[in-house]
Design a protein that fits this description.
The structure is a single chain. This protein has 105 residues and is mostly helical. 77% of the residues lie in helices and 0% in strands. The protein has one domain (16-104).
Protein backbone atom coordinates (compact mmCIF):
# COMPACT_ATOMS: atom_id res chain seq x y z
CA UNK A 1 0.00 0.00 0.00
CA UNK A 2 1.57 3.29 -1.06
CA UNK A 3 1.25 6.46 0.97
CA UNK A 4 -0.88 9.26 -0.43
CA UNK A 5 0.86 12.62 -0.84
CA UNK A 6 0.04 15.29 1.72
CA UNK A 7 -3.17 14.89 3.69
CA UNK A 8 -5.09 13.39 0.77
CA UNK A 9 -7.41 10.55 1.64
CA UNK A 10 -8.02 7.68 -0.77
CA UNK A 11 -10.75 8.66 -3.23
CA UNK A 12 -10.54 12.38 -2.44
CA UNK A 13 -10.25 15.07 -5.07
CA UNK A 14 -7.02 17.05 -4.50
CA UNK A 15 -8.10 19.81 -6.89
CA UNK A 16 -11.33 20.33 -4.95
CA UNK A 17 -9.46 20.28 -1.63
CA UNK A 18 -7.05 22.88 -2.98
CA UNK A 19 -9.91 25.06 -4.23
CA UNK A 20 -11.64 24.93 -0.85
CA UNK A 21 -8.37 25.72 0.94
CA UNK A 22 -7.76 28.68 -1.37
CA UNK A 23 -11.25 30.07 -0.80
CA UNK A 24 -11.09 29.64 2.98
CA UNK A 25 -7.62 31.21 3.18
CA UNK A 26 -8.58 34.12 0.94
CA UNK A 27 -11.74 34.65 3.01
CA UNK A 28 -9.85 34.94 6.30
CA UNK A 29 -7.25 37.26 4.74
CA UNK A 30 -10.00 39.45 3.28
CA UNK A 31 -11.82 39.48 6.63
CA UNK A 32 -8.75 40.74 8.48
CA UNK A 33 -7.86 43.30 5.79
CA UNK A 34 -11.47 44.47 5.61
CA UNK A 35 -11.63 44.88 9.38
CA UNK A 36 -8.77 47.39 9.27
CA UNK A 37 -9.45 48.92 5.87
CA UNK A 38 -12.74 48.99 3.99
CA UNK A 39 -15.96 47.40 5.28
CA UNK A 40 -17.07 46.65 1.72
CA UNK A 41 -14.36 43.98 1.56
CA UNK A 42 -16.50 42.02 4.03
CA UNK A 43 -19.08 41.41 1.32
CA UNK A 44 -16.38 39.66 -0.71
CA UNK A 45 -15.41 37.75 2.44
CA UNK A 46 -18.97 36.55 2.95
CA UNK A 47 -19.20 35.37 -0.64
CA UNK A 48 -15.92 33.42 -0.41
CA UNK A 49 -16.63 31.92 3.00
CA UNK A 50 -20.17 30.88 2.06
CA UNK A 51 -18.92 29.32 -1.17
CA UNK A 52 -16.22 27.36 0.66
CA UNK A 53 -18.68 26.17 3.32
CA UNK A 54 -21.20 25.18 0.66
CA UNK A 55 -18.58 23.11 -1.17
CA UNK A 56 -17.52 21.46 2.08
CA UNK A 57 -21.11 20.56 2.96
CA UNK A 58 -21.94 19.29 -0.54
CA UNK A 59 -18.82 17.21 -1.15
CA UNK A 60 -17.46 16.42 2.30
CA UNK A 61 -14.01 17.41 1.07
CA UNK A 62 -11.88 19.99 2.84
CA UNK A 63 -13.35 19.47 6.31
CA UNK A 64 -10.12 20.77 7.84
CA UNK A 65 -10.82 24.21 6.31
CA UNK A 66 -14.35 24.53 7.66
CA UNK A 67 -13.23 26.33 10.82
CA UNK A 68 -11.21 28.86 8.84
CA UNK A 69 -14.16 29.67 6.56
CA UNK A 70 -16.53 29.88 9.53
CA UNK A 71 -14.25 32.29 11.41
CA UNK A 72 -13.97 34.48 8.30
CA UNK A 73 -17.75 34.52 7.95
CA UNK A 74 -18.27 35.45 11.61
CA UNK A 75 -15.65 38.22 11.41
CA UNK A 76 -17.34 39.66 8.33
CA UNK A 77 -20.79 39.59 9.93
CA UNK A 78 -19.58 41.18 13.16
CA UNK A 79 -17.71 43.90 11.28
CA UNK A 80 -20.68 44.69 9.04
CA UNK A 81 -22.95 44.84 12.10
CA UNK A 82 -20.58 47.23 13.87
CA UNK A 83 -20.39 49.43 10.78
CA UNK A 84 -24.19 49.42 10.54
CA UNK A 85 -24.55 50.48 14.17
CA UNK A 86 -21.94 53.20 13.63
CA UNK A 87 -23.82 54.55 10.62
CA UNK A 88 -27.09 54.58 12.57
CA UNK A 89 -25.46 56.44 15.46
CA UNK A 90 -23.92 58.92 13.03
CA UNK A 91 -27.31 59.56 11.42
CA UNK A 92 -28.89 59.96 14.87
CA UNK A 93 -26.28 62.57 15.77
CA UNK A 94 -27.02 64.49 12.58
CA UNK A 95 -30.76 64.47 13.26
CA UNK A 96 -30.23 65.55 16.87
CA UNK A 97 -27.85 68.29 15.73
CA UNK A 98 -30.31 69.60 13.19
CA UNK A 99 -33.07 69.49 15.82
CA UNK A 100 -30.93 71.33 18.38
CA UNK A 101 -29.98 73.95 15.81
CA UNK A 102 -33.66 74.49 14.90
CA UNK A 103 -34.68 74.88 18.55
CA UNK A 104 -31.80 77.25 19.22
CA UNK A 105 -32.94 79.72 16.55
Amino acid sequence: MSAMPGNAMPGSNPALEQEIQKKATNAIIAAVIGFFCCPLVQIYTLILANDALKQINQTGAGQQHQTLATVAKILAIVHLALVGVGILLWLLMIVLGIGAAAVGN
